[in-house]
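Progress note, sequence design subtask.
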């Protein structure tokens, strides 16, 4: 890429970051005004900017951003992963089974163990996807579809409807910060997986762009032949990153069962894996960009919830329920041709000796 092209790309990313920052500040300002002034008496403003809407936005954002981080790790190393939905569902089901099997344990120990099981199963699904894509050279779209079908079928067949998971993660307020008006209850009074998801955005960003592992991962996804020529084991990096991506998707599933809902329901991921892919693309394969996109899509889910709770009858309920998916389609379709995925994404790599 030429210097002018790089400068243009950097400029576009800077503009997007500036726009995202302005929108975030505007949202915070409106939330403060609505919740601390007489503006809150207006129903529509409460629906759009009330604390309830902001809380729901964060809860809806967590599984989406974890799924997006999963996709980033996979695709930055060259593996297309549309199987996030299946990995997320497998993690949710595994966490539920682990929780129901350890209900007699102390609650904290049972929950931590269940999260570990969900993450491990998600990682296993990621490893299976990597095996299909790398070792058996299966089309990566088909491999991801197989993962989704496998998770849907296995979880539905094995699900015991009489099983009940007892207890889930509760909120842990951050001393001092949780007392801040409006923002405190939203950002600093949450259960642990929510905090972990936000921390992981920073961790993945730093790891991808400021460490040797991240540099090699991006090299493997952009130009595997050049990476191989300097001694980087391309397929090993792809196996590791796809497995790590599966673990993050499994953590998203654990959030749904062990923190958000408290129980398992068949097909409970409800398309979140696909919306996560949209957040990844909308965020230009960047962790902070994915967080912003996930927050946008989470906000549309919050609006759907708030409109239904407010008893809005002028618009059919079905159209309100469509809102998050319509926004996702419009957002991603508007980016066609404007974002560039990793150059080697979806391409099987063969070493010189095996070619």
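Output:
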């Amino acid at each position: 890429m030429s210097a002018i092209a790089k400068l243009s790309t950097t400029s576009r990313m800077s503009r997007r970051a500036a726009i995202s920052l302005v929108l975030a500040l505007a949202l915070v300002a409106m939330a403060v005004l609505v919740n601390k002034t007489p503006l809150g008496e207006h129903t529509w403003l409460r629906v759009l900017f009330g604390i309830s809407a902001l809380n729901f936005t964060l809860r809806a954002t967590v599984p989406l951003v974890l799924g997006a981080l999963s996709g980033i790790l996979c695709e930055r190393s060259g593996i297309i992963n549309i199987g996030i939905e299946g990995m997320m569902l497998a993690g949710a089901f595994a966490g539920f089974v682990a929780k129901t099997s350890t209900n007699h344990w102390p609650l904290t120990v049972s929950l931590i163990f269940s999260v570990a099981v969900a993450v491990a199963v998600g990682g296993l699904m990621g490893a299976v996807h990597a095996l299909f894509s790398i070792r058996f050279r299966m089309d990566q779209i088909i491999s991801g579809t197989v993962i989704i079908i496998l998770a849907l079928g296995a979880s539905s067949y094995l699900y015991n409807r009489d099983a009940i998971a007892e207890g889930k993660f509760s909120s842990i307020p951050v001393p001092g910060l949780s007392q801040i008006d409006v923002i405190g209850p939203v950002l600093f009074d949450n259960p642990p997986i929510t905090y972990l998801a936000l921390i992981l955005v920073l961790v993945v960003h730093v790891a991808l762009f400021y460490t040797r592992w991240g540099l090699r991962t991006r090299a493997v996804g952009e130009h595997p032949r050049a990476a191989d020529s300097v001694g980087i084991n391309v397929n090993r990096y792809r196996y590791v990153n796809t497995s790590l991506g599966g673990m993050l998707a499994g953590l998203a599933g654990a959030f749904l069962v062990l923190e958000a809902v408290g129980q398992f329901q068949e097909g409970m991921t409800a398309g979140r894996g696909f919306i996560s892919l949209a957040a990844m693309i909308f965020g230009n394969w960047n962790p902070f960009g994915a967080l912003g996109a996930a927050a946008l899509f989470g906000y549309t889910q919050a609006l759907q919830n708030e409109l239904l709770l407010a008893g809005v009858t002028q618009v059919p309920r079905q159209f309100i329920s469509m809102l998050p998916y319509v926004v996702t389609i419009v957002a991603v379709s508007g980016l066609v041709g404007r974002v560039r995925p990793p150059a080697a994404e979806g391409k099987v790599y063969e070493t010189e000796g095996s070619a």
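The CA atoms of residues 40 and 46 lie 6 Å apart. Work on this subtask will continue into the next period as scheduled.
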